[in-house]
Amino acid sequence: MTTGAPTTSEITVLNPHDGTLVGSLPCAGEDEIRGALTAARSAASDWARTDPEERGRMLRAAAEALVQHATELAELNTRETGKLAQEALGGVMAGVGTLRQYAELGPVHRGHSLRGGVLAADWTVAEPRGVVVALTPWNDPVAVAAGLLGAAIVTGNAVVHKPSERCPHTGARLGEILAEVLPEGVLVTVTGGPEAGRLLTQLPEVDAVAHVGSSATGRAIALAAAQTGAHVIRENGGNDALVIDDDVDPAWAAEQAAIGAFTNAGQICTSVERVYVHRQIAEPFLEALAAEARARNRDRDTMLAPLVDRRLRETVQGHVAAAVADGATVLEGGVVPDGPGSFYPATVLRDCTERMQVMREETFGPVAPVAVVESFAEGLRLAAADRYGLAATVLTGRIAHAQRAVAELAVGTVKINNVFGGAPGGSAQPRRDSGAGFGYGPELLDEMTQVKVVHVEMPPARG
C-alpha cells in the first residue's frame, strides 16, 4: 500500500548503461512515514495471531506472484542498477527460492522444552517482534529484500520496507507484487533517500530494524536503536580478502580472483576486495588475472556490468589513482572510459601495500588489488588484520592451512577453494564494522522473533 500525504521531493534514476532517464519517484516525507508505521502497527496484531501455516501459505503465494513478474522485475533492475540481464533474473529467482524456503521454515519455527520440576512444565514461545523496518540495498535488490521481508512476515511481523534510493522503482514494484497477496498493512513500501531511512530508524514505533548497506549507516542505526530499544540486524560493508597458497594452479586461482572481484562489477558485499598471493606463483597468477580482466573489458556488454552511478565510479577511480600514486602498478584497466553511462573497466593492480586505501577500504568496484607475500602465514596475518569481518576466501590444497585459516580469520564466513561457495541457508554473523546478527538463513527467523519463557505447575491441593 502507499499513503497519500504530501511528499517532500523526488528521486530521479538514470540508466547506468547509457545515462538515459529511468524515471522519478516521490520521496516519502514525515507524514507518509508515520502513516506507513501506523498502517503496519494496525495490521501487526491480527497478523501475529494468524496461524503459522496460513502465514506460510500466503508467503508461498507471494513467491509464485514473484515468479509471474520475474522478467519485469529483472528488466527494471537492469535499467536502474546496470546489473547484467542474466544476473538480474538470477537475483529475482534467488528471491523466489528464499520466499519458498521461509514459507516452509516459518510454520515449524518453534521454541524449546525446558527441564524443570517433576510436576511442572517449562517451555519457550517465539513471538513476533511487532513492526519491522527493512532497509535494503541496490546491488541485489530483490534477492536481499526477499530474505528480510520473507523472514519477518512469516514469523508474524508487519513490515515497512524502504528500498535503496538507487533502485526505488524495483523496490516499489516488488512491494506492490508481494502486498497484493498479503493482508492490508502487513507489507508497506515507502520510497525515499537517506532522510527517510534515518527517520524510520529513529521513531519509537519501530520494534526491529533490518539493514543491509554501508557500515556508516549501520553504525548510525545501532546508535539510534540504543535510544528507541529496537532490535537491530545489520549486514554492512566488507573488505574481503583472498589468500592464495603456493600449491594451487595459478590459472585457476586467477579465475577465482576474477569471479570474486569482477562479478557485478565488484558491487557485492562479499566481493574480493584484496588479494594476497604467494610469491612462488605470483607472476603466472598476475598474468592470468590480467588476461581475465582484459576478456571482460573486451566484452563488457555480456561480462561486465556498469557501476550503479557516476558517483560510485568517482570513488572507485579515486581508490585506484591513490594506489598508483603510492606505488601500485596497473596491469589492466584503471582508466575511466569515454561515453555515456557509468562503466569502469575490470582493473588489476600489483605491488599493493597495506597503507593504500584500496587495500584498507571497501572499493565496491571491479578492482583486484594484489599484494605478493612471502608465505601463507604472512598472507593470513594480513588478511586477518582488518576492521571488517564479513567473509574471506582461502585457496589451498593443504588441509592444515585450511584449518588454520578457519581458526585465525575473525569473519562471519570462511570459504575454502570457492570464492562464492556455500550451501543454501548457510547463516553467518558478520563482525566488527561488517555488522551484527544473522542476516539470512534459518537463524534469521530467530532474529525476527523474541522468546517468552513459560512455567506452569499445579497449585497446592485445597484443604
From TrEMBL:
Keywords, alphabetical: Oxidoreductase
The protein, known as: Aldehyde dehydrogenase
InterPro entries, A to Z: Ald_DH/histidinol_DH, Ald_DH_C, Ald_DH_N, Aldehyde_DH_dom
Keyword Magnesium: no
GO terms assigned for molecular function: oxidoreductase activity, acting on the aldehyde or oxo group of donors, NAD or NADP as acceptor
Source domain of life: Bacteria
Parts forming coiled coils: none
Organism of derivation: Pseudoclavibacter endophyticus
Residues passing through the membrane, by range: none
Residue span(s) of domain Aldehyde dehydrogenase: 9-454
Gene3D superfamilies attached to this UniProt entry: Aldehyde Dehydrogenase, Chain A, domain 1 (3.40.605.10), Aldehyde Dehydrogenase, Chain A, domain 2 (3.40.309.10)
